[in-house]
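As described in the Methods, two query proteins were run sequentially through the folding procedure within a single session, without resetting any intermediate state between them. The first query and its resulting structure tokens are shown here.
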Amino acid sequence: MTMTTAEADKILADNFAPWVLELGLCVEALGDDRAILRLPWSDRLSREGGGLCGQALMAAADTATVIAVSAARGAYGPMTTVQQSTSFQRAVTGSDVLIEAVVTKLGRRMAFADITMSDEGTGRDEGPRRIAAKASMVYALLG
């Protein structure tokens, strides 16, 4: 049975540091091997020139992966980041970001995921959303 967005939002509230919660992430959708989270635009997260800072995108990718792995496992369990590689492709200015984390391999002790971060503002009148960043994650499953 697929985890609900309410259950996933509770995982966020119960298991993440206050500074991560201050990003305002919310779970938009879940599947058996994926999660889509929204990172709302905030001037507090922008840097010189008005672009969203990379640290916020990396934290959002990391957080989305925890939710996707939890959905794939059917529940939250202790896990920790082993590796994260992020490639930034374009600046995000003034719009929310949709973060889609897809679990590509789920083992007994390790999980692997690919993450796509898209600028929601580019999906309205300009055709498909444009990718702002991509990441790959490796997690150790502790419990």
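Immediately afterward, the second query was submitted; its sequence and tokens are:
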Amino acid sequence: MYDVTTLLHEYDRARAFTDELWKDLTPDEVVWRPHENSSAIGWHLGHQAHVAHFMIRNLTAAEPSPDPALDALMDSALHEQFRGALPTVRRLTAFRETVAESVHARIGAIAAGKVSAPSQMTIVAAHLLTALINHEYQHDQWISEVRSDNLGHALPPDPKSDSLHRIDGYLVLNPRT
């Protein structure tokens, strides 16, 4: 298992890769859906942050949603065709940044021992971050497919890390055993 500081760097690497996949797209491309039973790139971006927020909130520290109006929209339990209009790129960006700051603050407090049961919470944090990183890359694969196959944009190279591997076509952070 990786230490949480290393995992925070891997989380930032995953988020930076996500940004490479979408930051050069137009707002219309971010909200475009290949068909009614698929999700727009913008939905995946919001969903990645939504899951990170809920995992941090439910596993480390209860805190309110940074944007409660997005909670239902970004929940994958809501079928694609019923998700409705996506927020603006600016709002999605702010949501993603706020959640990432929260992840850093909460995990940083755990790494610094500023929580009750710091040893136990360190184990929780390591598994949580591994799941968040792999979830980010899972949706990056889908974003990549729309970016490349449907929108015709080149893909950036995979992030460089000895800890990353492709499994079933997906980038995955393999936990140390």
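The first strand starts at residue 164 and ends at 167. We note this only descriptively and draw no conclusion about the first query from it.
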